[in-house]
Design a protein that fits this description.
Elements lengths: L1 E5 L5 E5 L8 E3 L4 H8 L4 H28 L10 H20 L8
Antiparallel strand pairs: 1-2, 1-3
Length: about 110
């Protein structure tokens, strides 16, 4: 989710990845108003920034998908390249540590 900062007239002034004092309204990455705001300047950097904001959530979705496929024996973890297995294992260990400490961390990983 994105956090929207608005001008006094109600138009979008800025978009943030995390809430701030001025940004409490949430919008989807593909919200028409968000896309219109980013498309105003037609700069490639705006679109790249938009994609990078979605990277964290997409990564978590892919991790979950890999876990399900492995559990259902559709693929084996060894089917993946060693580097991918290492990264998945590292992230799994961090998540286990977070769960054991009952930490509430939303936007770090």
């Amino acid at each position: 989710m994105l956090y929207i900062e608005r001008n006094e007239d109600g138009t979008i002034r800025a978009i943030h990845q995390n809430p701030t004092g001025k940004t409490v309204e949430q919008k989807s990455l593909m919200d028409e108003e968000v896309l219109a705001f980013l498309g105003k300047d037609s700069k490639l950097e705006s679109w790249i920034h938009l994609l990078s904001l979605s990277d964290v959530s997409i990564i978590r979705i892919i991790e979950g998908l890999v876990e399900v496929l492995v559990k259902k024996n559709v693929i084996m973890l060894t089917d993946l390249p060693q580097e991918a297995r290492n990264k998945l294992n590292e992230r799994r260990k961090v998540r286990e540590k977070m769960d054991s400490n009952q930490l509430l961390v939303d936007d770090i990983l």
